[in-house]
Amino acid sequence: MALLTWSDTLTLGYPPMDDLHKQFVERLTVVDACANAELPGAWSALIDCTQSLFERENNWMATTHFSSAENHTIQHKVVLNVMREGLAQARSGQDVEVRKMAAELACWFAKHIQSLDAALALHMKSSGLTGDATPTVMH
Ligand SMILES: [Fe+2]
Ligand SMILES: [Fe+2]
Known about the structure:
Elements: H1 15-33, H2 39-63, H3 69-91, H4 95-127
């Protein structure tokens, strides 16, 4: 059974965020299914995907002045640091530890989506902002 399967419970209804979350689930599934020899590469690809996802969310929070940005951004940073430790473990052949980390990451990810990301998605939808454009000056 996959560590995490894409489902309605993970869908927040803000497509740019949902798409990035889907990519994360796909990368995590590759990690879960790969042979130990492929683990460092698969884990590294998961880190790249996670970094893009977090940077995008952090950027949305910054450009829309989201009130809970600090706590959310810190969570991203902590998780990415732990994942980078996991890459060192994968490269030194500590496969069991990395696979345990992957399972913990799957749990964390689902909870994070349903709490902090859900609040951010709601904020993005209700504000009608894309978070990607340069703020326009009101005349
Ligand atoms: Fe997210
Ligand atoms: Fe997030």
